[in-house]
Design brief:
This protein has two domains: 118 residues, Sandwich (Immunoglobulin-like), CATH 2.60.40; 362 residues, Alpha-Beta Barrel (TIM Barrel). It contains ten helices and 28 strands. The strands form seven sheets. It has an eight-stranded parallel beta barrel, surrounded by six helices. By secondary structure, the chain is an alpha/beta fold. The chain is globular, with a radius of gyration of 22 Å. The structure holds alpha-L-arabinofuranose (AHR).
Length: 494
């Protein structure tokens, strides 16, 4: 145990709103992310609502999933929405060229996805096809989803079982236009973005956030060009950043790793801070009023696939390390909440850093799921700035502060403080000074594990989950908190 870690929460200097969309998810037609993981069809023995697994729906509702991005990813720029509507037997069967070359029967299309988001209570974030479809196709798709009129396209929606228009708050103008979305140069992508944005219209009374395809990680020139040339036509711009421990050819295993890999992974995820700072500075240049949102619309860990699984399916286990990655990013998002108003972890079920893993009728909640659960009261809360003084933790060349923190005041007045101790060997004794916070009672939850790669699997689905935390005391406006090694603590102060 060590002393000396100190956090000050400035409850008297409330900051930006912590947008609930920062807890968004990403569900792509990739591996078993949709088929099997989400959708089993209405004839399945697995309990379902309109073909979507009930266990998955219940789990997603419990963490209040606010937004789901669909249908890709790389899949989006080869997706033609008309192939996913109407009688299922008549929908064309295609090849999923991006992900394993498997067949895609289009059983989940617009009606299914939009209905699913309503059941979960999430907003849809639909990624358009810019790479291989015309602006007219995108305009018609939006008309199909949102038009209250009796146009032929709106009536087609009705014929397919949906009378009322859906609400479509977010639309992506392609995905990774610098790569799988068309291999465009930034100047060309900005022109294309302007062109498509012109034709994306929703009926009066609806508001559509038009989101430009953003940079790959630290490609600051992309953001600069997109903001300079197309900033006036968009409401948001993405950025994608994956935490990949090793080189692309040998990314590293999701479990069974050593402390060097632990430290390397967490150190790499902390790069998010620099990315949000630098992309934010560029946006400030063109949009000082911060009208345009920065959306981290793909993030999370990317490891080698589980041995024996299809390499194109990106199926990986998920451990305490992934929960730490999630919590560290939630703390980073708090510091950038004035500009960063959305994020979509990749991906929701069975793909990359998933919330849920399924195997036939079985489902497990991953440690990442539990990190989302711990932080769910941050949704739409007000950020309270924090100062953190912490000792360093290092393993080999990977050096970082042992303690990371953030704080918010919920709409109900409760103050939530999220603390992460990345040191896998030493507990942290943290004093948290609560300036301008009137609460006098503290309760908490703890997520940790016996090993760095503690995880849940189908044989032991509850090996790691949050427990009540009793290591915090509150006296005279100061919390004293004993945060165990490799742990996330969420405190509620009332
Ligand atoms: O999430 C997997 C893939 O990663 C997405 O399809 C793509 O946008 C990104 O490169």
């Amino acid at each position: 145990q060590t002393g000396g870690d100190a956090v000050t929460v400035h409850g008297d200097k409330p900051g930006a709103k912590y947008d609930r969309r920062l807890f968004g998810q990403f569900a792509e037609h990739l591996g078993t992310g949709i088929y099997g993981g989400l959708y089993v069809g209405t004839d399945s023995k697995i309990p379902n609502i309109k073909g979507f697994r009930r266990d998955v729906i219940d789990a997603l509702k419990a963490i209040k999933v606010p937004v789901i991005r669909w249908p890709g990813g790389c899949f989006a720029d080869e997706y033609h929405w008309r192939e996913g509507i109407g009688p299922k037997a008549k929908r064309p069967v295609k090849v999923n060229t991006n992900w394993g070359g498997v067949t895609e029967d289009n059983a989940v299309g617009t009606n299914e996805f939009m209905d699913f988001t309503e059941v979960v209570g999430a907003e849809p974030y639909v990624s358009g096809n810019v790479g291989t479809a015309a602006p007219s196709e995108m305009a018609e798709w939006i008309e199909y989803m949102t038009s209250p009129t009796k146009s032929t396209i709106a009536n087609q929606r009705r014929a397919n079982g949906r009378d009322k228009p859906w609400n479509l708050p977010m639309f992506g103008i392609g995905n990774e236009l610098w790569g799988c979305g068309g291999d465009m140069l930034p100047e060309y992508a900005a022109d294309v973005t302007r062109r498509y944005a012109t034709f994306l219209k929703v009926p009066a009374g609806q508001k559509l956030m038009k989101i430009a395809s953003g940079a790959n990680s630290a490609d600051y020139n992309w953001t600069d060009v997109m903001m300079r040339k197309a900033g006036d036509k968009i409401d948001g711009i993405g950025v994608h950043y994956y935490t990949v421990p090793g080189p692309w050819e040998k990314k590293g295993a999701a479990t069974g790793f050593d402390e060097e890999s632990w430290a390397r992974t967490l150190s790499k995820t902390l790069k998010m801070e620099e990315l949000l700072t630098e992309h934010g500075k560029i946006m400030d240049k063109y949009d000082p009023a911060k009208r345009v949102s920065l959306l981290v619309d793909e993030w999370g860990t990317w490891y080698d696939v589980e041995p024996g699984t299809n390499p194109g399916f990106l199926y990986q286990q998920n451990s305490l390390r992934d929960a730490m990655v999630a919590a560290l990013n939630f703390n980073i998002f708090a510091r950038h909440a004035d500009r960063v108003r959305g994020a979509n972890i990749a991906q929701m079920v069975n793909v990359l850093q998933a919330m849920l893993l399924t195997d036939g009728a079985k489902m497990v909640k991953t440690p990442t799921y539990w990190a989302f659960d711990l932080y769910k009261d941050y949704q739409d809360a007000t950020v309270l700035p924090v100062d953190v003084q912490s000792r360093w933790y290092n393993k080999d060349q990977w050096t970082m502060r042992a303690v990371s923190a953030s704080a918010v005041r919920g709409t109900d007045g409760v103050v939530h403080v999220g603390l992460v101790n990345v040191d896998p060997n030493q507990a942290a004794s943290v004093t948290v000074k609560l300036d301008g916070v009137s609460g006098t009672q503290v309760t908490g939850k703890l997520l940790t594990g016996d090993k760095m790669d503690a995880h849940n699997d189908f044989a032991a689905p509850d090996a790691i989950k949050p427990v009540a935390f009793t290591g915090a005391t509150l006296a005279a406006g100061t919390l004293t908190v004993q945060v165990p090694a490799k742990a996330i603590v969420m405190l509620d102060i009332k």
